[in-house]
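Postdoc handover notes: sequence design on the structure in folder B. Input tokens:
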């Protein structure tokens, strides 16, 4: 039986900052109107097992008005229980839009207890409003990850603004996603986030079965982060006699 688990920021303990290509923390399914029709939860789990994933987060697009959420969560539980292996951990969750006022477009009853990727899906046309909305999302205790982060086409952030943002991300224990669909975050942002010891993980943002666990489009971003991880590990080994190896990015995961 596949293990279905819920994970929240308060339960997260970082054991290392490595990027595990057998973990995909951003996968959609056919509960939206633009994914492939065969992207069912059953097929997703089968594909994840086939390609050797160990962890997968189902993060379907959600709105506060979404009436399918109970059915979606029930289907995840049913399909994980029916699966034939316990090698795959399944995290039920949602991708929630960051709104103009800084809130996320997800009912608190769901965001409180499930894995949440918060991301921009609308343009505000105002740099200050965008920054304040992002700051609010970062400080939201229900948000676990900031997804496919990048500025709007009409503006960018200077180094001081990026540093302030990175400090806020770090102090609120958020993860920045390396997004395979959009090749984000931008390189300059990634380097600044590295300077502030922000943690990263991989998200395919899959909308088809073939995209699950496929991170080939961000091999350059992965290499940059992994080079930094090697340096940190070498430093840790010299300072404290080694911190061990292996393990995933999270521990103390609450069961459903």
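Designed sequence:
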């Amino acid at each position: 039986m596949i293990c279905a688990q819920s994970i929240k920021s308060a339960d997260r303990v970082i054991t290392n900052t490595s990027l595990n290509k057998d973990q995909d923390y951003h996968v959609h399914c056919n509960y939206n109107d633009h994914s492939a029709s065969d992207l069912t939860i059953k097929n997703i789990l089968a594909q994840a097992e086939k390609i050797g994933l160990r962890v997968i987060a189902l993060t379907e697009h959600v709105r506060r008005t979404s009436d399918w959420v109970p059915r979606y969560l029930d289907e995840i539980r049913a399909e994980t229980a029916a699966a034939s292996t316990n090698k795959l951990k399944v995290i039920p969750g949602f991708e929630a839009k960051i709104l103009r006022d800084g809130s996320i477009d997800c009912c608190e009853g769901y965001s409180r207890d499930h894995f949440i990727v918060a991301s921009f899906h609308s343009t505000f046309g105002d740099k200050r409003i965008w920054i304040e909305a992002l700051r609010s999302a970062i400080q939201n205790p229900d948000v676990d990850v900031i997804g496919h982060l990048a500025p709007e086409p009409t503006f960018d952030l200077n180094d001081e603004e990026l540093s302030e943002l990175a400090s806020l991300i770090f102090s609120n224990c958020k993860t920045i996603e390396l997004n395979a669909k959009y090749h984000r975050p931008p390189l300059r942002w990634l380097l600044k986030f590295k300077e502030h010891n922000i943690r990263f993980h991989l998200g395919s943002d899959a909308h088809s079965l073939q995209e699950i666990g496929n991170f080939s489009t961000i091999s350059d971003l992965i290499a940059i982060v992994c080079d930094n991880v090697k340096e940190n590990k070498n430093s840790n080994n010299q300072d404290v006699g080694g911190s061990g190896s292996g393990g995933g990015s999270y521990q103390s995961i609450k069961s459903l």
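Context for whoever picks this up: The chain is about 35% helix and 20% strand. Don't rerun without checking with the PI first.
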